[in-house]
Amino acid sequence: MKLSQKLTKESVSPYFDQWAALAEELSSLHQKRSSGTAPLMLQGLDLLKELLAHCNGEVIPMNGKERIQFIEQRPNNYAAFRQLDELFSEMNKKIASKRIRLKNGS
Q1: Are 67 and 87 in contact (CB under 8 A)?
Q2: What is the pTM of this model?
């Protein structure tokens, strides 16, 4: 499958929809100072890795590997949650940008 077909809104939006649901739950847990965020964080991290694989590694946030390692080492940490949220946000922007470039033939 060509990259342009893999980056359609229909093919990537499920990843972002799932993250939005997880992020809402994680945010609530962090507000309650719950220590049980690790399983959901690891689930979110797996989702991000699936999205990266879906994009054939052609779309990756700056310092992505280091940031993923940070999250893996501190899944209960609020800073790790913020980092994961930022990674999804950056992926969304980068995919949109790549989609436009592919559409314009660049």
Answers
A1: yes
A2: 0.90
